[in-house]
Amino acid sequence: MKKKMLLFLGLILIVGLFPLMAKGQEEIATGPASIEVYYSVAVDAPIAKMLSGYIAAFEKDNPAITVKPVFSGGYGDTKTAVQTIQ
Predict the structure, then answer these.
(1) What is the pLDDT of residues 18-73, one digit of tens each?
(2) Which residues contact 77 (CB under 8 A, 6 or more apart)?
(3) 66: buried, middle or exposed (CB in 10 Å: 19+, 13-18, 0-12)?
(4) In terms of pTM, does the model score above 0.70?
(5) Domain assignment present for 10
(6) Nearest CA to 31 among 66, 75, 5?
(7) Dihedral, 59, 64, 67, 68 alpha carbons, nearest 10
(8) If you count Cβ atoms within 10 Å of the first and of the last residue's Cβ in the chain, which end, N or C, has fewer?
(9) Predicted pLDDT of residue 37
(10) How many domains are there within the chain?
Protein backbone atom coordinates (compact mmCIF):
# COMPACT_ATOMS: atom_id res chain seq x y z
CA MET A 1 0.00 0.00 0.00
CA LYS A 2 2.80 2.43 0.94
CA LYS A 3 4.69 1.54 -2.22
CA LYS A 4 1.66 2.33 -4.38
CA MET A 5 1.15 5.63 -2.56
CA LEU A 6 4.80 6.61 -3.09
CA LEU A 7 4.59 5.70 -6.78
CA PHE A 8 1.38 7.71 -7.12
CA LEU A 9 2.91 10.76 -5.39
CA GLY A 10 6.03 10.46 -7.55
CA LEU A 11 3.89 10.35 -10.69
CA ILE A 12 1.95 13.43 -9.53
CA LEU A 13 5.22 15.26 -8.86
CA ILE A 14 6.63 14.41 -12.29
CA VAL A 15 3.42 15.40 -14.08
CA GLY A 16 3.33 18.62 -12.04
CA LEU A 17 6.83 19.54 -13.22
CA PHE A 18 6.03 19.20 -16.95
CA PRO A 19 4.67 22.75 -17.31
CA LEU A 20 7.85 24.15 -15.76
CA MET A 21 10.05 22.19 -18.15
CA ALA A 22 7.92 23.05 -21.19
CA LYS A 23 7.92 26.78 -20.51
CA GLY A 24 10.71 27.54 -22.95
CA GLN A 25 12.36 30.91 -23.27
CA GLU A 26 10.69 34.18 -22.44
CA GLU A 27 10.34 36.66 -25.24
CA ILE A 28 12.30 39.86 -24.83
CA ALA A 29 10.97 43.03 -26.39
CA THR A 30 13.38 44.40 -28.95
CA GLY A 31 11.57 47.48 -30.25
CA PRO A 32 10.84 50.80 -28.61
CA ALA A 33 8.30 50.86 -25.78
CA SER A 34 6.23 53.56 -24.14
CA ILE A 35 4.86 53.69 -20.61
CA GLU A 36 2.61 56.15 -18.81
CA VAL A 37 3.24 57.35 -15.26
CA TYR A 38 0.21 58.81 -13.52
CA TYR A 39 0.72 61.39 -10.79
CA SER A 40 -1.64 63.55 -8.77
CA VAL A 41 0.41 66.68 -8.25
CA ALA A 42 -0.10 69.89 -10.21
CA VAL A 43 2.46 70.51 -12.96
CA ASP A 44 3.81 73.66 -11.31
CA ALA A 45 4.46 71.91 -7.96
CA PRO A 46 8.08 71.22 -6.91
CA ILE A 47 7.46 67.47 -7.01
CA ALA A 48 6.68 67.76 -10.74
CA LYS A 49 10.24 68.99 -11.35
CA MET A 50 11.58 66.03 -9.39
CA LEU A 51 9.39 63.67 -11.42
CA SER A 52 10.71 65.20 -14.65
CA GLY A 53 14.26 64.60 -13.41
CA TYR A 54 13.49 60.97 -12.56
CA ILE A 55 11.93 60.46 -15.98
CA ALA A 56 14.94 62.01 -17.74
CA ALA A 57 17.34 59.79 -15.78
CA PHE A 58 15.25 56.69 -16.51
CA GLU A 59 15.05 57.47 -20.23
CA LYS A 60 18.82 58.07 -20.31
CA ASP A 61 19.44 54.63 -18.78
CA ASN A 62 16.73 53.00 -20.94
CA PRO A 63 16.83 54.68 -24.36
CA ALA A 64 14.26 52.30 -25.90
CA ILE A 65 11.60 53.27 -23.35
CA THR A 66 9.69 56.54 -23.52
CA VAL A 67 7.93 57.71 -20.35
CA LYS A 68 4.82 59.85 -20.67
CA PRO A 69 3.84 61.62 -17.42
CA VAL A 70 0.05 61.93 -17.05
CA PHE A 71 -1.55 64.31 -14.55
CA SER A 72 -4.42 62.30 -13.04
CA GLY A 73 -6.11 65.13 -11.17
CA GLY A 74 -5.85 66.23 -7.57
CA TYR A 75 -5.68 63.92 -4.59
CA GLY A 76 -9.47 63.79 -4.32
CA ASP A 77 -9.82 62.74 -7.96
CA THR A 78 -7.13 60.10 -7.59
CA LYS A 79 -8.66 58.75 -4.37
CA THR A 80 -12.05 58.44 -6.04
CA ALA A 81 -10.55 56.71 -9.09
CA VAL A 82 -8.63 54.22 -6.95
CA GLN A 83 -11.65 53.43 -4.79
CA THR A 84 -13.84 52.73 -7.81
CA ILE A 85 -11.42 50.21 -9.34
CA GLN A 86 -12.67 46.71 -8.68
Answers:
(1) 676 666 666 777 788 999 888 776 666 677 788 888 999 999 999 999 999 887 77
(2) 40
(3) middle
(4) no
(5) no
(6) 66
(7) 140
(8) C
(9) 85
(10) 1
